[in-house]
Specification:
There is one protein chain. The chain is 68% helix and 0% strand. It is mainly α. The chain contains 17 helices and no strands.
Amino acid sequence: MPHSATARLAAAYFLILSAVLAQPPVNGLASGPASGPLPLVGPLSVVSRDGLAPVFTRARQLYQETDYQGSLALLSSAHLPDAAALQLMGQNYYLLGEYKKASDTLEGAMALQPASSECAMWLGRAFGRRAETSNPLTAPGLASKARQWLEKAVAWNPANHEAIGDLFDYYLQAPGFLGGGESKAEALAARVAQRDAAEGHYFQALLSDKHQQYEEAEKHLRAAVASTNAAVRQVGHLLDLAKFLARRGRTNESESTFEQATRLSPGDPQVLFVRAQTYVQQNRNLSQARGLLEQYLKSPLHPNDPSREQAQALLKKIQG
């Protein structure tokens, strides 16, 4: 479960705190790329009306293929009166960048499926993005709504790893008057460590990095890699380590770690994107970055991958 390209919101929408408080964003580790949130797809219920089930199935397939406009058009024309359909519409709006429509639609879905952890998580994300894109007067209230929904998502399903990651990011970045705080982040990290050693180490790495305790951060990142045998998750932790090493100026070690991730998952779009993004951010290996991005754009993508627009934006930076 690569953090760098999927698992969390990347603390991106919490950049609104910088605008509200005139504080610089945290340097060093982040739980995802600065390009924005890269959410995973949660389980969706089956449409209750048997005759409309094929419509929903097709809409969900289009969503999985990142054809959000097509999925939304199909759902809108069918007028499916179902919580799952409304939630899928909300997710489509979210990934199209229409955050107000996303939160409104997801609130409608939530009314039909109280205590849905998955829907609450998406609501938290939608309000977070609205906070990021709003003015300083409305941003704090929207950010607080994001936190409240994320807290509900975790309370309703303590195994919702995506919601836990998003909430951890919020606690780590937000000040106390918005419901954040490092003590809350540390408590959540301790809870996670009891269930998932690798994720616990990752959270501890973020905490250490925030305090510029880089040796500790690296130790935890390496422990996260060693603590999981699942290839997909190991790739994610390797990408986190590779980015960290690159930021610390340890280019050769970073390259070796990227190569290790590539061997574990050849052609993985997330590996392609994160490696290219690192090169572009550091203005090195730009020819290789271009090739990686071109390969990425030809790959079949899913909602938990960076968008094609993000890859194209990186290509524009290379081309100057």
